[in-house]
Amino acid sequence: MKNSKLSVLVALLIMVLLALPGCASKYGSPRTKVNFYPQCYQPVQQLRDDENYVAKSTATGAVGGALLGALIGGLTTGKVEGALAGAAIGGVAGGVAGHAYGKNQQAARDRQLVQAYSEQLGFEASGMARSTAAARVAQQCYDREFDQAKRDFKARRITKAQFQERYAEIRSGLQEVSFILTERYDTMAKKDVEYEQALAKDPALRAHVQGTSSTGKRRSSTASSAKPRNRWQSSHREMAAQRDRINNDVDAKDREIAALVADTQHT
Fold first, then answer.
1. Do the beta carbons of residue 44 and residue 134 sit within 8 Å?
2. What is the rounded CA–CA span in Å between residue 173 and residue 68?
3. Are 8 and 71 contained in the same domain?
């Protein structure tokens, strides 16, 4: 009977591990149907592929730890209670380990990709948020392809319908990038508000951050804590500026397309 209960517990843990659901995208659903320019959409796809890496790693570590803990606890005690206790302990340990591993891997991946984006952009992007650097790479790529599509249309290498199909994908890709930046901007703005509210509610923390303490040690700590804050605000502003540039770029392309198509209809 006990072995039967233990087997059921292990089976349930395995089922949970196999059925581990993905997290909802913080970037919204994909909006771009990629037919012509997968290389331009690649930075966006990479963001989507990696966005929940830490959460998934934490959840996988927790479930894996619970499974291992249940097996060890069950085998050691020969009781279902032992398996349950082992599952609880293993789940916590596995979750902590999974979270740490996920954060380290994600940070390394972000650094690697931002460095690659720097090479594509032709300038150092290491100070940017990954989403901002990815947006610049995507926009730069779509701009090149838009110019090429215009040349092909003017030279009659592609038809008006083919030109419009290509532009529809370019426009959708740029709009999706803008949407992603808007979502990230809103998230950062919300965190900014929460940070200020936390300071307002905690006089001791507010005094620490503002450097009101008269001790040199406290002022030194405040100065060091201001640097990450300034970097965060700078990234915040850059993200908003890049979003606005993309939106203006789409509007300019819309006007250019309309004028170009109108000119060809009169020739």
1. yes
2. 44
3. yes
